[in-house]
Design brief:
68% of the residues lie in helices and 2% in strands. The protein is elongated, with a radius of gyration of 20 Å. By secondary structure, it is mainly α. Helix 2 runs parallel beside helix 4. Keywords: Membrane, Transmembrane, Transmembrane helix.
Length: 167
């Protein structure tokens, strides 16, 4: 007996895309190991590349916390709840991609600096900081859905982002 096909929800699709995008960071780190880690990890570079990566991480975190979850509130309309929910997910997805790009920029900056400093340590630091930053700020989990839903619902209109609309 076969089970009928059920289409994935917006959350499942977004989670799959985010997991795929997050997987690029460890994969690129592994590839860069073969480029920059020819003699093991090597020596620690001068402190300035590491400090630049840390400054980029602080900037990315600040951006995500202060601006990343802002959105205009939903406006009242006679649209069905399912349409409102679809718009909410569309806006949440766009915000998630923006926050992901900001978090990933920490890793990309570390890659560029690693070639300048000729050290794999810089890439490693960038990956170790960027992945948890991504999972905290951009992963489409309950915390981030609730934060974004609060912004959407600040005008008093339910977003249905964290639950199903009542039919």
């Amino acid at each position: 007996m076969s089970t009928p096909f059920t289409a994935p929800t917006a959350q499942q699709r977004l989670t799959t895309v985010c997991a795929t995008m997050a997987a690029a960071i460890p994969m690129m780190t592994l590839v860069l190991w073969f480029v920059l880690g020819t003699h093991g990890l090597g020596e620690l570079p001068a402190s300035w590349p590491l400090l630049v990566v840390l400054a980029a991480a602080v900037s990315a975190y600040s951006f995500c916390e202060l601006i990343g979850f802002r959105t205009p509130p939903l406006e009242y309309s006679s649209r069905p709840a399912a349409e409102v929910q679809t718009e909410s997910w569309r806006r949440f997805t766009a915000s998630t991609f923006t926050r992901f790009a900001v978090c990933e920029s920490v890793f990309l900056i570390s890659v560029a600096l690693a070639f300048v400093a000729d050290s794999f340590w810089v890439v490693l630091l960038g990956a170790v900081i960027a992945l948890p930053l991504f999972f905290w700020e951009a992963w489409p989990g309950e915390r981030n859905q609730r934060r974004f839903a609060a912004a959407l619902e600040s005008g008093g209109i339910p977003s249905y982002l964290t639950g199903r609309p009542q039919d």
